[in-house]
C-alpha cells in the first residue's frame, strides 16, 4: 500500500530525493529496482493518485500552504476513499516548512476507540449492544526523522513493534455517524 504525502510547502527535487531515499522499502534484492511507496499530494485536487512519486524533476509548488489540520485530515478522508485501493487508510504524511529544516516528516495516524458513558474504554465485539457507547476517531501526530518513517509506519500497520517515541499529539474527536 502506498501512503499519501501532503506537501504544505514547495518540494524541490533534492528534498523529495532525500525523503524518498530514506524511505524506500528496505531489504530489496540488489537486482530489483527500489520501491518508494509514497504519492506526493501538493493540491486539493490531485490528478494522479494511482502512481507512486519515485522522483520529481522540478520543484512542485503547493496550494496547501495555508491548509489547516482539519482541512488536510478531511482531504485525506476524501482521497483515501474505499475506491482508491492502493492507498493506505491508516495514516498519511505531511512535508511542511519545518521538514525542510529538521528533515522530519509528520505522520498522522487515524484510529478508533469506543468509550462507555462513564468514560471507560470499551472493545466491542460483533453483535454487542452498543447502547451508551460512543465511537471516537483518534488522530495521533508523530514528527519522525526521515530515516525512521518506514519503521513508524510499519508499526502503525501492525507489521513491527509499536514505536511511540515520536508522538507529538493525540486528538480524539467524536466519530461521524455512518449509515
Choose one word for the global shape: globular
Percentage of β-strand residues: 25-35%
Please outline the major beta sheet.
Answer: 7 strands, mixed
Radius of gyration: 18 Å
The share of residues in helices is 10-25%
Assembly type: single chain
- What is the overall pLDDT average? 89
Distance between the termini: 27 Å
Enumerate the spans where pLDDT stays under 50 for 5 or more consecutive residues: none
Number of discrete domains: 1
Please tally the helical runs, counting DSSP H or I stretches of 4 or more residues. Answer: 4
Number of strands: 7
Overall SS class? alpha/beta
Report the order of strands and helices: EHEHEHEEEHE
Gist?
About 20% of the residues lie in helices and about 30% in strands. The chain is α/β, with parallel strands linked by helices and about 180 residues long. Strands 1, 2, 3, 4, 5, 6 and 7 form a 7-stranded mixed β-sheet that branches.
Summary tags:
179 residues, globular, alpha/beta
Question: Can you describe what's shown?
Answer:
With 179 residues, the chain is an alpha/beta fold. It has one domain (3-109, 141-171). 20% of the residues lie in helices and 28% in strands. The chain has four helices and seven strands. Strands 1, 2, 3, 4, 5, 6 and 7 form a seven-stranded mixed beta sheet that branches. β1 (3-7), α1 (13-22) and β2 (38-41) form a beta-alpha-beta unit. The radius of gyration is 18 Å and the shape is globular. The model has no long low-confidence stretch (mean pLDDT 89).
